[in-house]
TrEMBL record:
Catalyses which reaction(s): alpha-D-glucose 6-phosphate = beta-D-glucose 6-phosphate
Cross-referenced Pfam families: Aldose_epim
Keyword Transport annotated: no
Chain positions recorded as substrate binding sites: R75, Q93, R98
The protein, known as: glucose-6-phosphate 1-epimerase
Keyword Isomerase: yes
Enzyme class per UniProt: isomerase
């Protein structure tokens, strides 16, 4: 029989997780899978800044001008928008979770997980006294970041209302994922056609998507409503398809700033809009209400697969209808 101490040591050795210093000395966690894929998570913001496939290719976009200095949020990767998405409320843009320091969650409550996934890290965010001054609620936000055996990246957020005064709270949420693409004009998004959306460029007016697929030739900032659990981003030039699977997140935000907005952002290169696309699993239109003791869970799983071809065109149906 192995002693309990030896068992813990053996378990830690099997988990390929490294804690080290990142840019400007900020602490980060590197997750590695045996086949070669990896992910990096900064404790500042609980922010994923890298996700590479088993060939070492970067799948997320982070701006070359990103500022890794608190209190500025990191431009790119996967910022977490909580307790407010965008300007849908009275807080700062996208809330405060993305520019707070998270802690390691050493004793997370159990939840169903694939036992074959050994490569994960648990983080937790609790409000500071300053946070409670601007958003007067007590909460625990637990985030598990998992790198699957085939290189899939999974984010599970669990938010609990820990108020002792009986007060419920309301929030909106998004995983603000920046995907790295070859050329925005060569990219299409499948799975959102015919759906209603709120257009942030037109005072959040509601429209219905008309195209067979979403393609890009100018600035876009839309919140698609009642979206499917699976969305695909097809990158024609790289012959790569990103698949987003989501749970508990009914909306999907699609954003690219295009040239004028790109030039106006100090932490974003003038031409970088050509090589990124945000497609964000979100809960925006109908805010989440939590009573004391209640917990909400929102999950996003990202995978990158080779695009299949059919008469010269990408065949999204095999992606969307597949497993």
């Amino acid at each position: 029989m192995m002693s309990s101490t030896a068992a813990v040591t053996a378990a830690i050795e099997r988990v390929p997780v490294e804690i080290c210093k990142g840019i400007n000395g900020l602490e980060k966690v590197i997750l590695r899978e045996v086949r070669g894929s990896s992910a990096e998570v900064y404790l500042y913001g609980g922010h994923i800044t890298s996700w590479k496939n088993d060939h070492g290719e970067e799948l997320l976009f982070v701006s070359s001008k990103a500022i890794f200095k608190p209190p500025k949020p990191i431009r790119g990767g996967i910022p977490i928008c909580f307790p407010q998405f965008s300007n849908h409320g009275s807080l700062e843009q996208h809330g405060f979770a993305r520019n707070r320091f998270w802690s390691f969650d050493t004793n997370p409550p159990p939840f169903p997980t694939n036992s074959s996934n050994k490569t994960f890290v648990d983080l937790i965010l609790k409000p500071t006294e300053d946070d409670i001054k601007i958003w007067p609620y007590s909460f625990e936000f637990r985030l598990r970041v998992t790198l699957g055996p085939s290189g899939d990246l999974m984010l599970t957020s669990r938010i609990r209302n820990t108020n002792t005064d009986g007060k419920p709270f309301i929030f909106t949420f998004a995983y603000h994922t920046y995907f790295s693409v070859s050329d925005i004009s060569e990219v299409r998004v499948e799975g959102l056609e015919t759906l209603d959306y709120l257009d942030n460029l037109q005072n959040k007016q509601r429209f219905t998507e008309q195209g067979d697929a979403i393609t890009f030739e100018s600035e876009v900032d839309k919140i698609y409503l009642s979206t499917p659990t699976k969305i695909a981003i097809l990158d024609h030039e790289k012959k790569r398809t990103f698949v987003i699977r989501k749970d508990g997140l009914p909306d999907a935000v699609v954003w690219n700033p295009w040239d004028k907005k790109a030039k106006a952002m100090a932490d974003f290169g003038d031409d970088e809009y050509k090589h990124m696309l945000c497609v964000e699993a979100a809960a925006v239109e109908k805010p989440i209400t939590l009573k004391p003791g209640e917990e909400w869970r929102g999950r996003q799983e990202l995978s990158a697969v080779p695009s299949s071809y059919c008469s010269g065109q990408l065949d999204p149906k095999r992606v969307l209808l597949g497993s």
